[in-house]
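step: validate -> pass
step: tokenize input -> pass
step: predict -> running
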Amino acid sequence: MAAKKLVAVDFEVFGKVQGVFFRKYTEEQGTKLGLRGWCMNTRHGTVQGQLQGPEGMVKIMKDWLEKTGSPSSRIERAEFKNEKAIEDYTFSGFNIRH
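step: predict -> pass
step: emit ->
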């Protein structure tokens, strides 16, 4: 049986995403989906990061970042860049960077 295709993608989420536990919920959701990567607040009021995992799970997480987020967040848009197939993970889990 072939291994699931792993992909990596960079993301940035715009809107009211700071001060609303967005990173905490992103970490929880990423971990729940078995993804690896990181997220952090930026100086210009967005949350950015990288996801790594099976293609289907990354797609679910992208939808979550675009439409759901944390309960108090107001997502204007999410941008995804540099999506590519990867041979193996470069992160051991999903965490918040400061």
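step: describe -> The helical segments are 22-32, 55-67.
step: cleanup -> pass
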